[in-house]
């Protein structure tokens, strides 16, 4: 059966092996190899994507049930791999310009992606934890990668301390669950809880679950475990922030869904209200706290808190349709964020990076195409149809209403109106304010490519929504029947 | 003429094609501006000519949806691309396609900065407006309904007056707040029916308790769009700050979206909810009519005055709809069309003097008839139509609404008649202060009369005002069968005993109030 296990984990094995090889390559060709290593990492990510999509033994358990591959894992993994590849491409120009061009950067990015793949496929509390830590360790380092600037090192340290705290909570929760359930296996937990036949599970198990949720909420930066997000987003080098806002977020949300729906699916009565609350609070807090931000990276941090709130609306519904809404939301969110960060990376004046919202003033005149794409991302984030962001919100709220969570839906759409205020304020700054000094031209071709593709994808999503919707449906169904 | 073609999709998306070509224009700024203007005008005129097929090809004896197109879009959720028009929507499509070229023509010289973007925004707006009136699927409807916010936000914010930023944010957030609540209602309807098809929903009997909630959610959206008192405050700001053509399209078409929603959804689909909340609508409408008219009397800014008069006129429309009589609803529809043309024309009249003097303050003008006889004549026609002079379009609408209101209650009729008197007062006073008297202000001595381009802008509107006033049947015949069917459905669907509890309380207190007034 070992052979079967290796086949199921083939994409992960490829990534791990390539990571080690690239490390060797970098070490032996010191100095000049960053660009080559970066592109090789992109190639590895793309190969892994293809493997995930076409792997021969596509579904099943591996390594004694520690690792699972199903349609759900496939969907989330593809999303993670593609967003990691996009983040890698976007960071190329930056790391060379800002004296960050060390080959360890792309390799670390690859290793954290490997951690995410393991998280998504985790079928046991232990493999969950190992995957999570592999991801986090690499992220601590790349957050502090500009080690000669105080902000970056501070961001890395802050992320390390707080993330370690959350890992500890998660681990504590896991050990409580093991203590009261006698197993760390997801399948075992599911059987145990289903066997209760509606009776209340033991208190210790519930306390363990609460700690587990707290740890996961931290990783997705949901309220009230969001505190690290604005500081880390602001302090980390911009391409790292872009990466943070996409791949780890998707992986953590995917893991959140798998843990709650898989082993704890029968205990929905116990966790639904918790998710209800953190979802509502994230939407409301993200919307309100973003209003006064003047730094665009901080603004994106609050935006990501709010967006996680919307995604969790789907999880709170606890139905296949809710889970599918959550996946659709995350897929669209990643595209919006990729575009937005491509603009932020293009914000350079006379060779220096700028991050103030006011630096965008008059961009509609000085760089009409960049401004138009940014406006598309912002209107999409605000959820205005016919842009793709509207469909993301539409599907999660649809699930919430069908699950009877009317108040969550009402509060959610009200929060989205507050959120619309700061998104359209960016449009206002670009189009209504008097032009200041424009950004350096031309925009690097990697960024220009990301900008164009994501703007077109959001603008034209309504023409061809079916592949994504069908994919998310299949993925969600796998978790409920698998 | 165009049989076999998907005429509604063509009319809806042709402007977007034009916008795409304008997007491609490159070159020297003057060349770009000239080409953008020409392409925009050409596109909108062709769109209008295409849409005439709706006028000639529409079967006036039928109450069914016509020119129907249907294609799968997201089948697993019961969402389809479904388009069609009936007697309620067909004339609004024509109104939108007529007003767009007029707007483009009127901004020919007034807009000098970023002409390309301006024209793209206007053509995108046309697509969204036309699509909204044609949509027969809730999700498609919602996309057009809310999508309108994007171009309008940009039009007010980029080309507007000094307080444009405040006005555009207020406009955007108010209307967004309304529409997101409607989105929840749409989702609730989906779970009742497992489809978002509008014709299916229109004949479905919703439980009375659900109707109340759905009605309120739709009301939140439509009341802001109408706008009804007390959520009307975005309108004066938006009107005053928007460029002339923006005000025209706002008054001409966008304000109609709310009342259209009431007629299209609230009345036929939620009969119990509508019956239950009629006193609420009446109360808000009276306040709108009388309060807005009084406020209009006190205005020093021409655009603000006309903006408040819009609030008052839309109060008539909402009363007319909720009289739930044939005359009342037809009157409301007619009044909406008439107001769409008359208030657009009045905003254009303000635009004419604003372009020359760069002031909208009434006190800066006076005696214009001496220098601008053509202008004075055009302004008079539209002013009298706004007042409701017999022989103009305004009269027919107000008259029918009054007939409907009398059937509902003589008090209703009395109160809105007061609004008509106030309306006459502020419009005539405005006209006297601007046009009559001696030409005393020195900077008015050299003001020029209407150019031929401006005459071309006003002429079609003037013809329509008179045509609608003298021979209204050619418009009413579109609506009558549809309204008849709508009312028959409404009556049949009304569950006989009124909902108990709060309904009784409101209705009895309403009766006491009217009796006390008697």
Automatic annotation (TrEMBL), chain B:
TM helices/strands, residue ranges: 6-27, 39-58, 78-105, 117-133, 139-159, 171-193, 243-263, 275-298, 305-324, 336-354, 375-396, 408-431, 452-471
Subcellular location, principal: membrane
Gene Ontology biological process terms in this record: ATP synthesis coupled electron transport; electron transport coupled proton transport
Compartment(s) where it occurs, according to its Swiss-Prot or TrEMBL record: Endomembrane system; Membrane
InterPro entries linked to this entry: NADH_Q_OxRdtase_chainM/4, NADH_UbQ_OxRdtase, ND/Mrp_TM
UniProt key word Transcription regulation: no
Residue ranges annotated for the NADH:quinone oxidoreductase/Mrp antiporter transmembrane domain, each copy included: 135-419
Record protein name field: NADH-quinone oxidoreductase subunit M
């Amino acid at each position: 059966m070992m052979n079967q296990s290796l086949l199921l984990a083939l994409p992960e094995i490829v990534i791990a092996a390539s990571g080690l090889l690239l490390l060797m390559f970098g070490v032996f060709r010191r100095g000049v190899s960053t660009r080559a290593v970066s592109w090789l990492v992109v190639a590895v990510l793309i190969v892994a994507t293809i493997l995930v999509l076409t792997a021969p033994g596509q579904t099943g358990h591996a390594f004694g049930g520690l690792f699972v591959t199903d349609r759900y894992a496939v969907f989330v993994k593809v999303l993670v791999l593609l967003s990691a590849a996009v983040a890698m491409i976007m960071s190329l120009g930056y790391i060379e310009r800002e004296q960050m061009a060390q080959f360890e950067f792309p390799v670390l990015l690859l290793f954290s992606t490997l951690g995410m793949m393991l998280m998504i496929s985790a079928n046991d509390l232990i493999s969950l934890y190992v995957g999570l830590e592999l991801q986090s360790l690499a992220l601590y380092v790349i957050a502090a990668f500009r080690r000669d600037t105080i902000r970056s090192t501070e961001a890395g340290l802050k992320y390390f301390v707080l993330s370690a705290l959350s890992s500890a909570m998660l681990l504590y929760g896991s050990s409580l669950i093991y203590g009261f359930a006698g197993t760390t296996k997801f399948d075992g937990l599911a059987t145990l809880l289903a066997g209760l036949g509606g009776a209340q599970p033991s208190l210790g198990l519930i306390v363990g679950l609460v700690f587990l949720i707290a740890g996961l909420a931290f990783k997705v930066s949901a309220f009230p475990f969001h505190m690290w997000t604005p500081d880390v987003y602001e302090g980390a080098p911009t391409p790292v922030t872009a990466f943070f806002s996409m791949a780890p977020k998707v992986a953590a949300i995917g893991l959140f869904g798998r843990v709650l729906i898989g082993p704890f699916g029968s205990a929905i009565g116990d966790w639904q209200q918790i998710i209800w609350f953190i979802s509502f609070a994230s939407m409301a807090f993200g919307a309100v706290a973003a209003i006064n931000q003047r730094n665009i990276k901080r603004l994106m941090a609050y935006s990501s808190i709010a967006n996680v709130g919307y995604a969790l609306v789907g999880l709170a519904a606890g139905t296949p349709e809710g889970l599918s809404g959550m996946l659709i939301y995350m897929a669209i969110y990643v595209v919006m964020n990729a575009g937005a960060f491509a603009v932020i990376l293009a914000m350079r004046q006379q060779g220096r990076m700028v991050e103030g919202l006011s630096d965008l003033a008059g961009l509609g005149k000085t760089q009409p195409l960049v401004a138009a794409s940014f406006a598309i991302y912002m209107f999409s984030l605000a959820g205005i149809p016919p842009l793709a962001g509207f469909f993301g919100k539409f599907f999660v709220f649809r699930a919430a209403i069908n699950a009877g969570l009317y108040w969550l839906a009402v509060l959610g759409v009200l929060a989205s109106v507050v959120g619309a205020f700061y998104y359209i304020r960016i449009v206002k700054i670009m189009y209504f304010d008097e032009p200041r000094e424009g950004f350096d031209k031309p925009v690097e071709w990697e960024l220009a490519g990301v900008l164009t593709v994501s703007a077109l994808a959001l603008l034209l999503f309504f023409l061809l929504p079916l592949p994504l919707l069908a994919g998310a449906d299949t993925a969600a169904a796998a978790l409920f029947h698998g | 003429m165009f049989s076999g073609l998907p005429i509604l999709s063509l009319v809806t998306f042709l402007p977007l094609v034009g916008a795409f070509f304008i997007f491609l224009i490159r070159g020297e700024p003057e060349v770009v501006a000239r080409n953008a203007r020409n392409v925009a005008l050409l596109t909108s005129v062709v769109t209008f000519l295409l849409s005439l097929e709706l006028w000639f090809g529409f079967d006036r004896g039928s109450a069914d949806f016509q020119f129907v197109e249907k294609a799968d879009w997201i089948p697993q959720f019961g969402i389809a691309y479904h388009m069609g028009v009936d007697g309620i929507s067909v004339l609004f499509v024509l109104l939108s396609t007529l007003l767009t070229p007029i707007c483009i023509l009127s901004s020919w010289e007034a807009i000098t900065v970023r002409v390309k973007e301006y024209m793209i925004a206007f053509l995108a707006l046309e697509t969204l407006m036309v699509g909204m009136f044609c949509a027969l699927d809730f999700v498609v409807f919602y996309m057009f309904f809310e999508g309108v916010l994007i171009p309008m936000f940009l039009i007010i914010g980029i080309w507007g007056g000094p307080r444009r930023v405040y006005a555009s944010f207020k406009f955007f957030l108010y209307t967004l707040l309304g529409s997101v609540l409607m989105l929840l209602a749409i989702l609730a309807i989906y779970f009742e029916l497992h489809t978002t098809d509008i014709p299916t929903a229109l004949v479905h009997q919703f439980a009375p308790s659900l109707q109340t909630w759905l009605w309120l959610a739709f009301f939140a959206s439509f009341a802001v769009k109408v706008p009804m008192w007390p959520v009307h405050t975005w309108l004066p700001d938006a009107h005053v700050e928007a460029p002339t053509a923006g005000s025209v399209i706002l008054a001409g078409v966008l304000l109609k979206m709310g009342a259209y929603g009431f007629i299209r959804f609230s009345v036929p689909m939620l009969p119990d909810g509508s019956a239950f909340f009629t006193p609420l609508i009446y109360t808000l409408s009276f306040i709108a009519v009388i309060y807005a008219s009084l406020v209009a009397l006190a205005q020093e800014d021409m655009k603000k005055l006309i903006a408040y008069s819009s609030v008052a006129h839309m109060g008539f429309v909402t009363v007319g709809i909720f009289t739930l009589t044939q005359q009342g609803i037809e009157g409301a529809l007619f009044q909406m069309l008439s107001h769409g043309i008359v208030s657009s024309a009045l905003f254009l009249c303000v635009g004419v003097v604003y372009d020359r003097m760069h002031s909208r303050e009434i006190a800066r003008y006076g005696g214009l008839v001496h220098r601008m006889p053509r202008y004075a004549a055009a302004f008079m026609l539209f002013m009298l139509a706004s007042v409701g002079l017999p022989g103009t379009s305004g009269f027919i609408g107000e008259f029918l609404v009054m007939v409907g209101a009398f059937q509902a209650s003589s008090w209703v009729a009395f109160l809105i008649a007061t609004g008509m008197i106030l309306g006459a007062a502020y419009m005539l006073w405005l006209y006297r202060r601007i046009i009559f008297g001696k030409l005393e202000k020195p900077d008015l001595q050299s003001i020029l009369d209407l150019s031929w381009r401006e005459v071309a802008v006003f002429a079609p509107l003037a013809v329509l005002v008179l045509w609608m006033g003298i021979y209204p049947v050619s418009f009413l015949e579109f609506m009558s069968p549809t309204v008849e069917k709508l009312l028959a459905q409404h009556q049949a669907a009304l569950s006989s005993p009124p909902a108990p509890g709060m309904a009784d309380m409101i209705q009895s207190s309403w009766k006491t109030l009217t009796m006390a007034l008697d």
